[in-house]
Design brief:
Helices cover 46% and strands 15% of the residues. The chain is built from 12 helices and 8 strands. The chain is globular and about 45 Å long. The protein binds phosphoenolpyruvate.
């Protein structure tokens, strides 16, 4: 499994967002690797990007979805809207949504359920804050996030889920987990999946690292045995930097 995901967050207007997607598609045409690349732009860019990109390893994701199917939820975007606009994936439980929008593990479980109901593959984000790490609670927090958010599903559903470990203290801060810290948590996550769903599913589950990943540190993070790829924010605002990271992912 090998995946590099570009989280565009709330950056770039429509034209600028399309330009980045086209620049990545252009560079993907020369890329010889097998890594999947998932562009995760603001939702209003999705249908245009779907129209313009055409590459077997390029996919599109939404940054968030509603846990509800439809109805009086002004401003929300359903999983069917994302899917029918051209998305293949959706991020669930990004730490910025947990922090600013009060998303709990229980809400994340409902969002994953809604995504799976509409053929979207969820990328479920987990990770501890600095305070939680300093108090020695990182592993317990991550276990809770996984157990409540993603372990209530049957094996066949869980197999559709991508996990992203994103230490909150490393997101957008310039601080990166060391390769040892990343590997330690990724191995812990794979161990929990093994206990719950068995070795075969655990080995197949992509576990991505996110948190200030950039061309200069991507190689060593991706070299870790349990790191299957990256979720990239800041460094993905520039298509060349993002593609450097993709190429580091072998
Ligand atoms: C993210 O938002 O998922 C992320 C990893 O951001 P950054 O790369 O900027 O830390």
């Amino acid at each position: 499994v090998c995946s590099s995901d570009l989280n565009g967050k709330m950056n770039k207007n429509f034209q600028e967002g399309i330009e980045v997607a086209l620049a990545i598609q252009h560079q993907m045409n020369d890329y010889k690797g097998e890594c999947e690349v998932i562009l995760i732009p603001p939702a209003v860019h999705i249908s245009k990007i779907r129209e313009l990109i055409d590459h077997k390893n390029l996919f599109i994701g939404g940054q968030n979805c509603s846990e509800h199917d439809s109805g009086a939820y002004t401003g929300e975007i359903s999983t069917d809207m994302l899917w029918s606009s051209g998305a293949d994936y959706v991020l669930v439980g990004h730490s910025e949504r947990r922090q600013y929008n009060g998303e709990t593990n229980e809400i994340c479980a409902k969002k994953i359920d809604a995504a799976l109901d509409n053929q979207l593959l969820p990328i479920y984000c987990v990770g501890e804050t600095l305070e939680q790490r300093e108090k020695g609670n990182a592993f317990a927090i991550i276990e809770e996030q996984l157990t409540v958010g993603s372990f209530a599903f049957e094996s066949a559903d869980f197999e559709q889920i991508v996990i992203a470990y994103e230490p909150v203290w490393a997101i957008g801060t310039g601080l990166t987990a060391t390769k040892e810290q990343a590997q330690e948590v990724h191995a812990f996550i794979r161990g929990l999946i093994t206990k719950k769903y068995g070795k075969e599913i655990a080995q197949k589950t992509p576990i991505l690292y996110g948190g200030s990943c950039k061309p200069s540190n991507a190689d060593e993070i991706f070299s870790q045995p349990d790191v299957d790829g990256g979720l990239i924010g800041g460094a993905a605002l520039n298509a060349n930097d993002f593609m450097e990271i993709v190429k580091a992912n072998k």
